[in-house]
Amino acid sequence: MFLHYRSSEINQHSIYLEWQLTSDHVLLSITIPIVDEIINTSKLLILIKSEQKVAFIEEIISSFENLDTSNIVNKECLEDVVNNLDLLVNQAWNKNMKRTRITKYSKKWWTDECNKALTDYRASRSLDDWKTFKKVVKNTKRSFFNTKIREVADKSRSP
Questions:
Q1: Secondary structure (DSSP) of 140-152
Q2: 131 pLDDT above the threshold of 80
């Protein structure tokens, strides 16, 4: 058994000599403390190709344009302007973000357009809406993965 020699929590082990059989091996045991960990099952986001993203960016641009920077004469004034800007960005984020559940089925490429096509199909159950949904999913995936491939190619500077 190999243990971390500097850890008082993990370096506590027990040797059970009385359980030794005919070999020279002895049973060893260790108790490893496991800390409760909170695993987030949801995240806050603004979808890439969504109306919320456009609104968020417009609000940020408007905040920058309306920000009064004429009275920055010392460090405190600058800190006030930066804190005000931080507040405005957080307000825009909170207004436009949405909470999504993370599941084993979550897909980064899924968009509002996919949601709409799926909702339309579920409402009508028509073959045409199913074909439209499949086409939207196919095009969305293609666009998403082509972008990812371009990012990898640009990063590694090779095809």
A1: HHHHHHHHHHHHH
A2: yes
